[in-house]
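Help!! Second protein's tokens look totally different from the first
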Amino acid sequence: MKARWTVGVGLLLSAASALAGTPQFDALRDGLEAGHVGTVEALVAALPGSLRDAYALAFASRSLQGASFASPRAILYGTDATFIVTFNGEAPERGHATVETMEFDASANRFVLREIGFAADGDPAGRSISEPNPARCLACHGTPARPIWDLPPAWPGIYGERYGAGLSSAEKAGIEAFLARQPTHPRYRYLEDATRFAARSNYVPDGRAVYSGASLEPPNARLSTLLAALNARSILAELVAAPGFAAHRYALLAATSAACGPPEAYYPQSRQGDIRREFGAFRERTRLARAREANAKTERRTGVKRAASGAGATAGLEALRFVTEEGLGLSTAHWSLALEHGAAARAAPEGATTLERGLLELAAAEDPGLRNLVTYRGYTATDGYCSYLKRASRRALAAWDEGHPPRAALASAAPLATATAGAPAPALLGSCAACHTGEVAPAIPFSVPDLLAERLLEGEYPHGRLLDEILYRLGPESGAARMPRGTTVTAAEQHELEVYFLSLPPRLADRR
């Protein structure tokens, strides 16, 4: 039965890859049902070789699946990362009885996350499959869901974490421990050519490979490029679906190139002063977010805390993100693949499909002359390409403004509000509730205000009561322990959460 299912799932997944728009997870689920599969081991054994041949290994994980040096989390991404399967190897680690998947839905240009759970006794009847994008996954991956994968030059916690530098001494010892058990391990033995992870050439091309032109990027960099390209497709689809996209398409395209000047140049004269001021504030918030993300990433890799100065932060896609948020009213927090949600990192590594190319194709479909202009551009603010974009953008936005009053200053720049008794819960509270279920993090009733109000004034934590501990964890002074985990919290969001938590005990007293 197992052998028959192994062939069946491999064929189903291969066929799904060949048929555009055919969900690969559906093929996997059909195989699970047909083969009466009840264990993680049986599922991994049945995956096609192409998926088991391209993977990364995480020795430190903040996901729902734990990891260690000798028992890493395997992230199988295949040839194009459109279907990713992950699992770990030791029973004490969290998530040992689960397989996680992430599929890129090409028809909707979005990522779909799922979790498959298996019963301890291996009974297929005890197998469970989550709904698409369950809340416990979205708590870190966000809405819309995005991949979480660092960009070069470092992937903290992943073997080969330093781009172009080979393995550290700790990684070398860890991979030796892993390889000593891999050939006979019930799960890891199905990974193809695992010994390559001990070779320096897996991370740094040797002279022969460079000379012959056969050198490949290391596994972590390849996955970065693949995921960034898919994420760019998801972002472009979201932009196109926005009501104001047609009017803002020239401004968005101009914003992808620093050569075309600052964003205010794309707007009608009457709005340029306001846009200039708003963009200045936006850049400062981005600078601070970049500093926090860079320092958090460094701490994840080295354990060393640093002050958030923002030094060395690059401009990235600030102008494009600004026009997207100001003009279309869309959040760009999910544009980054970084663990720190909303970190404002660049959208793609070198070599990946870019937003600039995608936006040019979209705009040129309605305005074919753009192709000639971009071919002969001089990469200055006054060349024919940039000059045309500015003129076309000002006309389009002037017409748009006639029927749509200019958007107020960006929400993240708005004055901080004071919560009232009837005010809705802060948006980030959902992230707290999703994690603190007792399985991933200690059980705290964030989704039940009455119960939470009682708990806030209780407990003995390092910084006092639960309320004191929460207020400390919300601030930047808590460093890597800052909450919500994996989120770059703005000053406005921190204040909103603080006001909310502080308002709960008085409300409880009033009810009593």
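Here's the second one for comparison:
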Amino acid sequence: MPKQTPQKKVSKKKVRVPRSARPAVYRWKKISLTRGFWLFFAVWLVGLLSTQLLRSSASNIFFSFLNVFPIASLIYALIGRSAIKVYMMADNATVEKGAPLSYEFRIYNESILPYPFVDAYMMLPQTDSVRCAERKVRISVPPATDYNVKNTVSFRFRGTNRIGVSCFYVYDYFRMFRVKVPEESYETVYVLPRKLVLDDDKAQSVSDSAQQTKKNVNSYEKIEVSDIRDYRPGDAIKSIHWKLSSKCENPVIREYNTGTTDLTYVFADMSRRFPVEAPDKPFVFIPPREDGEPEPEDPDADVAELINDAAYEDMNEYCADGVVELAVASVLRELRNGKRVKLLWFDERSEIGAFSFEVRAESDFDEVFRLFATAALVPPEKTVAKLSAMVNDAEDAKFIFVLPTIDDETVTSICTMPCTSDSSTTDENEVVVYMAEERYAHKAQRAAYIDGCRTQLAESGLTLVKGSLDGFRQAPAENAGEEVEADA
């Protein structure tokens, strides 16, 4: 038998997080000493020596004052801990991205003592209105007055944001003691994306599509009645069950089983695909042309390179917005066509790390819309390839994969997925890619790369759909160079 090599024990070292990087609630203890206390301690030592050396009444009085002074300062700071309160002026808000949102809160001093030194740690929107970030604000609160924070902001991206005060620290007059007041008071703002409405010329009424069943193989009829339900606007008149309708208050219709599947899976990829900072690339000097014409783009250029370094900072959030809106549009389109839809995405709010909801009507989707619309980004390894492993009943189902970007690894993983290779409706499966063309540096090369991905996916029976925040754009199979745009 081969000899097994003993494994070395890996020592777990605690990583020390800098105090400036910690949340405000955990930055300092309930009562902590500042640099002013150590300066006072030096004065106290001088007073002690002068009292021992001079032995005068003045030095004794001064030293006694030094002994009482820190106690009075500590009591003063502790009073501020219970006297200063935070009041929010509004409840939780739900707005659409880009819409103006007004928020207001105040820090109120209920005591008769002034507190000129208060460090308030607030969660406020960033200057670029992407997310809320913690800010330290040094304020002065006079007796029985308040400090108001009021502003109007428009969030650029969908998600969940918290606005308010995480905690604040009260100091005494001589800044010797720091007393923490963990007064967490937030307003939760749910920023929702738009609901894109995509026109579909093949839209059918509910009674004209298969509903929740498949064809019975033991039946000798081409079309079977699968269910009886109330009439809905848009149903075909020929489907009305006249005999039962005469006995009921409202008309009822027959639902037919057409022998085809009515289930569509929509996978939303919420993974981070782009670095936060621009990757280092060597500087290459290209001399300008004498005729003034722009230089032709390099055929060997990186098709994933963005137009500038600033574009990397919020590219993940930018593409996540596109994924969510395109996924919502796909779900609504399938529901209008009489389909059942299962929406799946990775989410850390779930106990199992992912959510899966089946919706049968737009009213059902409205119940999960906010949960899906405010989903946070997940690590880059949590892609639709792993998400599709949650699917067990893949037979005869349609699959729609909504991606923030596309690369060779993603194309290969989707083409080799068991759920797509085993599906009998492969010719209907779609790969929806959010393009964000305005952010890529080499547009011509990327367009050629997308055409190559389209060809590779088409060989596996998958249709590549190019999406943007302004609508769907799908290239016809016979001519990859032309695009058909559907207005949102």
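Reply: Different proteins will give different token patterns, so don't panic. The chain has three domains: 19-192, 211-257, 263-487.
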